[in-house]
Structure formats: C-alpha cells, structure tokens
Design goal:
- By secondary structure, this protein is of the alpha/beta class.
- Strand 7, helix 11 and strand 8 form a beta-alpha-beta unit.
- Helix 5 runs parallel beside helix 6.
- An 8-stranded parallel beta barrel has the order 1-2-3-4-5-6-7-8, surrounded by 7 helices.
- It has a single domain, classed as TIM Barrel (Alpha-Beta Barrel), CATH 3.20.20.
- The structure holds flavin-adenine dinucleotide.
Length: 303
C-alpha cells in the first residue's frame, strides 16, 4: 500500500516543485543523490573509481515539456561525457528518453540522442537507456534497436516484473544488444506486470540465468541478496569470466555488498544520479523501501 502511495506522489507536480526548491533538499537526498551539479557527480565517480567500482552517471530529469528542455538535457549529457573523458574514469552515462523529448515525438528524441551517442562512441563508452513506465516500453525498445544499429554503444534496460520481458530478452540477445536487468520501479497494472513480488523475483532469476548463458555483457541490477548469491553461483557453474557480465547497484544502497563483490573480483557498477530534478527518482527509492522514510527523518533531525 505504501509503495503505491509513494509512486502516486512521485507524479505530483506541485509537490515536486515544492520539494525540489526546499532548503532541506540536500539534507533529505544526500543518501541517494550525489549532489546538484556535474562536479558533485564526478567527485563521487572518482571516489568510487578509487575503490575499484565502475559508474553510470545519471543527470536526473524526466518527462520534459518543451523542445528547448530536451535539447538542453542532451547538451548536459554531452558535457557529462566530456567530464568523464577528462577524468579518465570508466563511466557510462544513464539517460531516460522522456528527458530527451519522447513525449514530444520520437523524432525530437532521436535528434537529441545522436550527439550523445556520437560522443560516447568516440570515447569507447556506452549510453544506458533506462526503462520507464509501460507507456513508453515499445517506443523505447524501438529507439534502443535503432541506436544499436547506428552507433552500437547502447545498453537497454528490461524489467523482470513485465510479462513481455522474456520475449524482449530473447529478441535483444539475438541482436547482440547488452541488457541491464532490473525488477521494475513503476506502478503497473496486473494485465502487464506480475502483481506478486515473489513472482517478480522468480522471473528475475529465470531471465538472469538466460542472460548469463546467452546475453551480451549483461548487467544484473539488484540489491536482493538471494539474487546476488544465485548470480555468483550460476556464473561459477558456467565458468564465466567476470569480464563478461557485471553487477549494478544504486548509489547509497547495499554498500557492504558492493565492496564484497569487488573483493571477489567481480565487476560492479554504481548508478550515480546528480542534478536538481531529483524528486521522482527519490520517491521511487522510498517506494522500494518505505522504511527509508524513518532513516531520512532521523537524519534530517540530526542535521
Ligand atoms: C543500477 C540500477 C538501475 C536501475 N534502473 C532501472 C530502470 O531503468 N527502470 C526501472 O524501472 N527500475 C530500475 N531500477 C530499480 C529496480 O527496478 C528496483 O526497483 C530496485 O532495484 C529494487 O529492487 P531490488 O532488485 O534491489 O530488490 P528488492 O527485493 O526490492 O530489494 C532487496 C533488498 O535491497 C535493499 N533495497 C532495495 N531497494 C532499496 C532502497 N530504495 N533503499 C534501501 N534499500 C533498498 C533492501 O535491503 C531490500 O530488502 C534500477 C536498479 C538498479 C540497481
């Protein structure tokens, strides 16, 4: 019930405006968000790099309303890529297509994506296209396939809570598109997504095993201990070289596991968000674990 409440609040524009301009914002968000600026995001990437952790830098933003905002988002990500190149860190960038103007049309979105992909390809890194709600799944995958054909340096994201994902995994594996597998963070109807968490978890394990066997550089994106243990055991069973897959986690979550995996010689990449448009991302993190509210409230009072 609380999950649903946080997810519906995450779409409330008035609350978003209020929260993102609040003077308490930084105190509230610092556990999950690197800071407001690219410099803050890069500082976290450099620090993680020193601990042997790879990163996916995410300039926060989604559902922009004008072409000017979409073009500005594209420019920001090109700058982020240039900062990554200057720092010499092994980082990808993670983006959302609604940040690039998907609500304004596929062509607007593709136009804004091309400079980002051109920059990433020239640097030998990758653009990870996050998956948003099912309102966008089909169009997102069409654009992923097109960027894969034009530039090659894309990673798709698929969500284990959707019934369709098994088919999408097979199709993207056939095309050689790298996939980040996650459980899924949006509110979806029962005719599109498994309503019970136990079924989502079972489907995740099944798809993860397919990806480890047949995928191209798959990323296992989860903080679920049972999933991490199973992934390690299955990769060992298959005698997979750890260079052929990676674990991904979100900044601020399960720090001990991040370190443990690195010490075991596994590739670990942290998703590092930065920027002022933090509210929807932050509310999805509360929805995943409502107990975070208690933790954040204590932090705020202490500060
Ligand atoms: C790198 C990365 C990228 C992602 N990209 C996308 C995307 O593009 N699209 C999308 O829909 N979703 C995305 N997600 C979110 C994902 O779909 C899940 O909502 C989220 O990861 C929680 O699922 P879980 O696998 O960690 O398992 P869960 O079963 O939800 O959690 C397992 C355990 O992990 C810890 N944990 C999980 N979430 C939190 C939290 N917020 N705060 C504190 N502890 C927590 C808790 O200890 C919990 O018991 C991404 C997740 C990761 C790690």
């Amino acid at each position: 019930m609380l999950r649903g409440l946080f997810l519906s609040l995450s779409r409330n524009r008035t609350l978003r405006q209020f929260m993102e301009t609040s003077r308490y914002a930084a105190g509230l968000t610092s556990r999950f968000i690197a800071g407001n600026t690219l410099e803050a995001g890069m500082a976290v990437c450099r620090q993680l790099s020193g601990r042997g952790i790879l990163t996916a830098l995410d300039h926060l933003g989604e559902n922009v309303a004008t072409e000017a905002e979409a073009a500005a988002a594209s420019g920001e990500i090109v700058q982020a890529l240039q900062a990554i190149e200057r720092a010499g860190t092994q980082a990808t960038v993670a983006i959302k297509l609604t940040q690039f103007g998907l609500d304004l049309g596929d062509e607007v979105c593709r136009r804004n994506l091309r400079p980002v992909f051109a920059q990433a390809r020239q640097m030998g890194t990758r653009v990870e296209i996050d998956m948003e709600s099912t309102a966008y799944t089909e169009r997102t995958l069409a654009i992923v396939k097109q960027m894969h054909a034009e530039f090659g340096c894309v990673r798709a994201v698929l969500q284990a809570y959707l019934y369709r994902t098994e088919t999408d995994v097979a199709e993207l594996n056939r095309l050689g598109v790298p996939i980040r597998l996650c459980k899924g963070a949006y509110q979806e109807p029962a005719d599109l997504a498994f309503p019970a968490k136990a079924d989502v978890d079972t489907n995740f394990v099944k798809l993860m095993e397919t990806l480890l066997r047949e995928g191209t550089q798959p990323a296992i994106a989860s903080h679920d201990e049972r999933i991490l243990v199973r992934a390690l055991a299955y990769a060992r069973e298959l005698k997979l070289d750890p260079e052929r897959y990676e674990f991904q986690m979100l900044y601020g979550i399960r720090r001990q596991w991040q370190q443990r995996l690195v010490e075991e010689g596994q590739r670990v990449r942290l998703y590092v968000p930065y920027g002022k448009a933090w509210y929807p991302y932050f509310m999805r993190r509360l929805a995943e674990r409502p107990a975070n509210v208690v933790f954040l409230a204590t932090n705020l009072l202490e500060n």
